[in-house]
Amino acid sequence: MIAEVPPDEPAHLVEVLGADDRPEHDARSIASQYRLRTRFPARAEAEAAALHEPSAAEIRGREDLRAHVVFTIDPVDARDHDDALSVRDAPGGRIEVGIHIADVSHYVRDGSALDAEARERGTSCYLPDGVVPMLPERLSADLCSLRDGVDRLALSVIVILGPDGVLHQYRFAETVIHCRPGLSYEQVEAALGGGAALPEEIQDSCERLMELARTLRRRRLAVGALALETQEVKAVVDGRGVPIRMERRPHLASHELVEEFMLLANRCVGEAGAVRGAGMLWRVHEPPLERKLGELDEMLKALGLPRLGRAVSPHRALQGLLAVSLDDSRRRLVHRLALRSLTRACYLERDLGHFGLATREYCHFTSPIRRYPDLHVHRRVREWLHRKKDGAWDPAANSELAARCTATEQNATEAEREAVRVKGLRYLEGRLGERASGSITGLIPRGFFVELDDAPVDGFVRVGQDLDDRFDLDAAGVRLVGRRTRRKFTLGDPVEIVVARVDVPARECDFALVPMGSRRGRRGENRRQGWR
């Protein structure tokens, strides 16, 4: 329950969140904590309800690609399909790839109630119990979504590539497409790996796109792009919000297939926007601070891990580090530490480049259903296509919009992490008293954090309390050393713990160390489950 209590005035009940021990109320609690907008204003809902399937008049004048083999590749539970792909031969032994993005700007007009609300929200927020969308469901899961079997309006980037991945030309077009049955990442992964084949024309398209994607990826890495591995954690819940399992989602080759063409489309739009100059929002990732790279190198040295070396640029130094062959646990640790040394990407009204992608002139274009900057950039592309003169954009207004989009993105990211954390704690409630194995993922003077091997959830070990000793954190911040026992606990070390205490409302979980003499092997060794 939330109440507003003005000074010297009666309190007012604002919101009832439900009992904190009921998992079905978790999403409501997170939405309130992060001030997520869960209800659309009546005017926005009315505008959405008045929209309709594409008419003949709306289709007329668009490039008709309905006869092309166009398909989506998305998570198995996705409902908002922003993007689709197609591939076919082009003259001279070259290849034409269509990167088709939902034409949200056709429906959500600048100055409308829908646009005002989308700007306020900035992004969709994906929680384990469901999505808090940027646009009403009538648009996000229906009219704008590139669903199979229906005509959909798109803004397409048509690129001509050589077999070597060289981009020869590109153009933008307002199109109408008709998607074939949608594919999941897992389906495509299986089909490309020799498993169940897809329909022949789609199988052939996926194989050609995968070959091109690998070539594009090699070219990106050759100029300094970072191949960082990041861990995606998913909480799988039942209809009452109870966590069934916590999963580490593997990064698949099929993810890279889609990712490479989305990156390419974003770069093509960015290049065209840089030429025209006005009104763009840029996706900016500034280089890491020299101090942060120095701290990273000291941590790697203290841990006995490969170091950054003496490369001529931070790009090359980090690339060399990430390319070293290591076992799974040490590789994850190195990638986690490298990620912590980097700055956070943001939106700006001026282009400062993207360090992680080793490129300039980069923007977000490919997810307009769920990100407002993409919708903003779509409107610029529409201006170019209709040969309208670029507006005299107010730099201050554009700067304000960029700052707001950055803030809403970061807020949604934090809400998503917190929601997964809550489900992870609820999952651990059912394991109180259980012994489990894990690895140390972070240290502070009072103790250390452990992530379990068999589930991507963590808890805190109050090591001084458990071992009746005082521990000091070394200068590099990677090792705790006991003053009396001289016991050492180092980042990445395997440990065995007991789930001792879980407090969901306080967002706390305590693990207790299993005494060394009672360890009979690491539980969970046979139960292991399988980054912009």
Give a written overview of the molecule.
With 532 residues, the chain is of the alpha+beta class. Helix content is 35%, strand content 23%. The protein has helices at 26-33, 42-49, 56-59, 104-107, 113-121, 137-143, 185-192, 200-222, 253-276, 290-303, 314-323, 328-341, 372-385, 395-429, 463-467; strands at 2-4, 12-15, 63-64, 73-74, 83-90, 94-102, 125-127, 130-132, 151-161, 167-178, 183-184, 232-237, 243-249, 282-284, 346-348, 435-444, 447-452, 458-461, 471-473, 479-482, 488-490, 494-503, 508-513. The protein has a 5-stranded mixed beta sheet with strand order 3-10-9-6-5. A 5-stranded mixed barrel has the order 16-17-18-23-22. α1 runs antiparallel to α14 (395-429), α2 (42-49) crosses α5 (113-121) and α10 (290-303) packs antiparallel against α12. The longest helix is centred in the last third of the chain and has 35 residues, at 395-429. The chain starts with a strand and ends in a 19-residue tail after the last strand.
Order of the strands making up the biggest sheet? 3-10-9-6-5
- Individual helix count: 15
The radius of gyration over CA amounts to 25 Å
% residues in beta strands = 15-25%
Q: What's the rounded overall pLDDT mean? A: 91
| Helicity range | 25-40%
List how many beta strands DSSP finds. 23
Shape verdict: globular
Residue windows where pLDDT falls under 50 for at least 5 positions: 521-532
Largest sheet: 5 strands, mixed
Structural class: alpha+beta
What does the oligomeric state look like here?
Answer: single chain
Distance N to C terminus? 36 Å
